[in-house]
Write a structure and sequence with these properties.
Helix content is 46%, strand content 20%. The protein has three helices and three strands. GO terms for molecular function: lysine-tRNA ligase activity.
């Protein structure tokens, strides 16, 4: 019985140490001004990308070498070897996209 009590006390001490560590890390981030960062900015919506690039072939798109930032909820993810496919919903209807590592 005393061993169980001792194990429970150790768990409480470990939890307190964990909380202390987390609070110290949060205080450090707050001092830096990035406690809860939310500074990601998208520059395109999926509707804009479809309107601008929908009729283009892969070779044309690769030659353009354009980088865009989109944001939304990943509804599905399909990993197929080296290529990964996601369905992204960003306020409108879901759009499928390809991501190759």
């Amino acid at each position: 019985m005393s061993e169980q009590h001792a194990q429970g006390a150790d768990a409480v001490v470990d939890l307190n140490n964990e909380l202390k560590t987390r609070r110290e890390k949060l205080a450090n981030l707050r001092e830096q001004g990035i406690a809860f960062p939310n500074d990601f900015r998208r520059d395109h919506t999926s509707d804009q990308l479809h309107a601008e690039f929908d009729g283009k072939e892969n070779e044309e798109l690769e030659a353009l070498n354009i980088e865009v930032a989109v944001a939304g909820r990943m509804m599905t993810r399909r990993i197929m070897g080296k290529a990964s496919f996601v369905t992204l919903q960003d306020g409108g209807w879901p759009h499928s996209a390809v991501r190759c590592p």
